[in-house]
Amino acid sequence: MSVIEVRDLSLARGGERVLHHVSLSIEEGEVLMVIGPSGGGKSSLLRCLNRLEEPAPDTVFLRGQDITTIPVTTLRCRVGMVFQKTAVFGGTVAENIAYGPRARGKTLSRDEIARLMKLAALDADLIDRPARELSGGQEQRLAVARALANQPEVLLLDEPTSALDPVATKHVEASLQSLREQLGLTMVWVSHAVEQARRVGDRVLFLDEGRVVSVGAAQAMLDAESADPRLKAFMEGQEPARAKAGPGAA
Amino acid sequence: MEILNDLFGGDLFAGLGDLSRVLLAMLFVAVAALISRWQRADLEKDLFWATVRSFVQLIAIGYLLELIFQQDNPVWTLLLLGVMVLIAARTTGRRGENTPRATLIALVSIGFGTALTIGVLVLLDVFAFTPQAIIPIGGMIVGNAMTTATLVIVRLSDDLAAQRNEVETKLALGATGRQASLTQFRRALQSAMVPIIDTTKTVGLIKLPGAMTGMILAGASPIEAVQLQLIVMYMLVGANTFTGLSAAFLTYRAFFSPAQQLRVVGQP
Fold first, then answer.
1. In sequence order, what are the residues at sequence separation of 6 or more whose Cβ sits closer than 8 angstroms to the Cβ of residue B138?
2. What span, in angstroms and rounded, lies between the C-alpha atoms of B130 and B212?
3. What pLDDT digit, counting tens, does each position of B13-35 carry?
4. How far apart are CA A122 and CA A114, in angstroms?
5. Cα dist. B255→A3, A13, A28, A163, B181 in Å?
């Protein structure tokens, strides 16, 4: 059974359709990269998977169960999310990481917090540091540790490296890869960087104007020779940006 | 005035006493308008209309109060209070244009704050339920409650829009809408309560407040005036708190769907 299955999902906002009949499935332990141009519906799709946007009933399933029938706070613990721009809350790194469990009346021990920091490749010495003093890359790894505190089955990543420099991008990618190896975590990773999709994705889904244009194994699909014309145009449009920012830049 | 009396026949201003003092006071406005013109501050038109409106509104309410004070039926008092609450809610609702159902929220919160405060004052026998007591007291409460409701609604909706990323991050971590907007809820309430708290802290040190000044001018002893002023201050703190809390509660609720999704105007 797929971890997440989307069946014929459409979404309208302000009278305008942002997703058109999207269907896909995500398997256990898989990293699915969702790529496409800005405004193509990538973030809207991701937000439907944890009900930050409301999908119609019987369109999104978590392990076979319609997500609109799962209590929403439970769903969001099972399907964690890391945003493009990390919102760092007031207080220490430890307090930030413990936010999710605390919202449900649970306390995390310092050992548990330290373990989560290690999983997210965050230096243990930072545990009592005011979270707002962290660098951009550290903030993103804090966001990962914070999401992991809820013990999610799926991690949604909404362009987590797009605001980072190439070095910080590599660190975040490495920590997420390591997470996948250690925990077998399923990830849906939105990116607009083709090179990143090639580096970290098992499969790639190309979304344009709210429609699934193509989906397939990362290497095969991103092979320029066989690519769909729209995907090819998207990839070619990225070339100058990639050359300027260097590999791994989002 | 005599010309007007001749024109309309009878003593048109009989209930007003000597209006010459009011007209003399208007000289201040005339001087302000002259200064504005001299300094090209472009305030003359606003000053003129503010003066005309305040004159007409207060004279009209004076006659209306005379009429209601002569009635025995408390329904008239309640009706006037209701009209005050409606006007206040409409004013606040216009300010809170980014908040869903802002006028309804304002109506409920101002109405609740006013009803609760007046109810407690009457039940505890601080004031009798007479139009002479309840209408001026109600006016003070509604006016203050309107300011508080506006500050809460506008601040909370602005903060939820500006800090949407933080709120949605908390929602995505499994927080409820209430938990996710707690910081913004507290800030809105605190900022709305600061004026009345500061006024209460400094009362008597910086200025003598309105009710007390009025009583002393009317010949009451300063101690009597202070007693009434203390009642008014504490009453307003209570009314503002009830209104602020209910406005904040209803506003945050208006921004979250039953599935704990943040609804913000201008959502991408």
1. B80, B81, B84, B114, B118
2. 20
3. 555 556 788 888 899 999 999 99
4. 9
5. 31, 16, 35, 29, 10
Contacts of B174 in chain A (CB under 8 A): 73-74, 76-77, 100, 103-104, 150
d(CA B248, CA B254): 10
What is the DSSP-derived secondary structure letter of residue B175? Answer: -
- Closest among A34, A37, A28 to A200, alpha carbons compared: A34
How many domains are there within chain B? 2
Report the side by side order of strands in the sheet with A60-62. Answer: A16-26, A4-13, A60-62, A65-66
Q: What is the pLDDT averaged over residues A195-215?
A: 91
Question: Between residues A216 and B205, which one has the greater pLDDT?
Answer: A216
Comparing alpha-carbon positions, the chain A residue that sits nearest to B178 is A103
Mark whether B34 and B142 lie in a shared domain.
Answer: no
Residue B158 CB burial class (10 angstroms; 0-12, 13-18, ≥19): middle
One domain, residues B226 and B263 = yes
Per-residue pLDDT reduced to its tens digit, B113-126 = 999 999 999 998 88
User: In the structure encoding, which two tokens stand for residue B53, read together?
Assistant: 């409106």
For residue A82, the cross-strand partners are: A157
Nearest CA to CA, how far is A148 from chain B (Å)?
Answer: 10
Q: What pLDDT digit, counting tens, does each position of A5-44 carry? A: 999 999 998 888 999 999 999 999 999 999 999 889 999 9
Q: What are the chain B neighbours of A14 within 8 Å (beta carbons)?
A: 267
Domains parsed from chain A with CATH numbers: 4-245 (3.40.50.300)
Confidence (pLDDT) at B101: 93
Task: Using the Cα atoms of residue B143, residue B145, residue B146 and residue B152 in order, give the sign of their dihedral.
Answer: positive
Tokens representing B154? 């506008």
Q: For position B8, what pLDDT does the model report?
A: 47
Q: Give me the domain span that covers residue B52.
A: 1-70
Q: How far is CA B103 from CA A87, B84, B87, B111, B139, in A?
A: 32, 14, 10, 12, 19
Decide which of B26, B50, B70 is a domain's last residue.
Answer: B70
Distance from CA of A51 to the nearest CA of B (A): 7
Judgement on whether residues B189 and B244 belong to the same structural domain of the protein: yes
A193-207, B51-65, B212-226, B242-256 — most confident range: B242-256
Residue for token pair 């499994």: B174
CB B151 within 8 A of CB B194: no
Compute the mean pLDDT over every residue in chain B, rounded to the nearest whole number. 88
* Interval A180-204 mean pLDDT: 90
Domain finish residue from B70, B89, B112: B70
Residue A150 has its nearest CB partner, among B165, B168, B173, at: B173
Interface of A with B (CB under 8 A): 13-14, 43, 50-54, 68, 72-74, 76-77, 80-81, 83, 85-87, 89-90, 99-100, 103-104, 143, 146-147, 150
